[in-house]
Amino acid sequence: MSDSLQCYRCGASLEALSLPLSRQDQCPQCANYLHVCRMCRNFDPRIARQCREDDAEEVMKKDTANFCDWYVPAPNRHSANSNAEADRAQQQLDALFGNSDTSSGDSESSHSAADDLFRK
What's the whole-model pTM score? Predict the structure, then answer.
């Protein structure tokens, strides 16, 4: 392969790992498993099962380790945009449930109001 492998999640170089990647191989930087659909050359989010290999069994969770025999790691699977979207969604969830440092100061009052409901 002319392109070096990068972690699909964080973009860290995977040159230190030997090929073929085993099911248990993890990214040395973010510790995510690498034998996942999102890291495979057959992964295509634009098609129905998100896999170009017709004979492959369907995998429901595309970012968890699996036993697919058709797995071939693909270079350039890291996308900074997908991480930005995930971070933004996490920040919105944190703000909604009051788990973020960036949430407004009224999260304390929300928690005390909820506590008051359960004390009655």
Answer: 0.63
